[in-house]
Write a structure and sequence with these properties.
Elements: E1 2-3, E2 26-27, E3 37-40, E4 46-53, E5 58-65, E6 70-78, E7 85-90, E8 97-102, E9 110-115, E10 120-127, E11 133-138, E12 149-156, E13 158-162
Antiparallel strand pairs: 1-2, 3-4, 4-5, 5-6, 7-8, 8-9, 9-10, 11-12, 12-13
């Protein structure tokens, strides 16, 4: 992935605010299929990558390892698996964890805090017995809270949302819905 490009107006002049030393390209990440979909934080640092291993036929989830300046693979799943594992982003309350939706052995998907270092599900945040969750809702002010998850969506006839969850009340309360 290359960010930055030369910027010139049709007249050949540079636009206001663009200095000549800013007109260069910088290679941030060399893309490949196993690191195909990369998420960045507000500062432009890579934090999460999703990809596919052609040799084994597995989907790969990889997190950035800032201590060693490389990637840490934390989840693999066969393309033939019926389990669900979707990463929505970093867990803002637990550093090193990611918010994921997954079955984790249950019939329906739930929202989990997943520990990337131990490769284990750490905390169940929301789950229903009757339906799978179908996505998350993010904070309405994406400028100041870009990755903050504020609710969960589930489909039961139509799309519903639950905004009174995520560590504000015990997880067992959401099972009564």
């Amino acid at each position: 992935m290359v960010l930055g490009q030369k910027c010139r107006l049709r007249s050949g002049r540079e636009p206001m605010g663009v200095r000549s030393q800013e007109r260069h390209k910088k290679l941030l990440v060399r893309g490949k299929i196993s690191l195909g979909n990369i998420d960045f934080d507000e500062a432009g640092n890579p934090i999460l990558a999703r990809g596919f291993d052609l040799n084994s036929g597995e989907f790969i989830c990889t997190g950035a390892n800032p201590e060693r300046d490389d990637w840490l693979e934390f989840y693999r799943q066969s393309e033939d698996s019926f389990e669900d594992f979707t990463v929505y982003g970093p867990d803002p309350e637990v550093p090193g964890n990611f918010i994921v939706s997954a079955n984790n052995g249950a019939d329906t998907t739930g929202l989990w805090s997943f520990n990337a270092a131990t490769k284990k599900f750490q905390e169940l945040l929301y789950q229903r017995k009757d339906v799978d969750i179908c996505g998350v809702k993010y904070h309405s002010n994406s400028w100041t809270h870009s990755d903050v998850i504020t609710g969960v969506g589930y489909c039961k006839g139509k799309i519903h949302g639950n905004f009174s969850m995520l560590r504000k009340e015990p997880c067992t309360d959401s099972w009564s819905n």
